[in-house]
Design goal:
The protein contains one helix and four strands, in the order ββββα. The chain is an alpha+beta fold. The termini are far apart.
Length: about 70
């Protein structure tokens, strides 16, 4: 039987009852993300790809900080 994922809300989404938040869960080798207002729509990615996205977003220029 498949386990039901435990979704965790981003700490940047505000207080516990905030209606707009990003949630994530992990399965073996995959990170799943969703918007709390649309829980049936999920994005899936690898930890490495998510880390690259976060580095890019945090970059002052908004560009890739490393080659693929």
């Amino acid at each position: 039987m498949a386990q039901v994922p435990t979704w965790q809300k981003s700490s940047f989404s505000g207080d516990e009852d905030a209606p707009n938040c990003v949630e994530l869960t992990a399965t073996t080798g995959t990170i799943h993300l969703r918007e709390s207002e649309a829980p049936h729509t999920e994005l899936s990615t690898s930890p490495a790809q998510l880390a690259a996205l976060i580095r890019s977003v945090k970059s002052p220029t908004g560009h890739r900080t490393e080659a693929r």
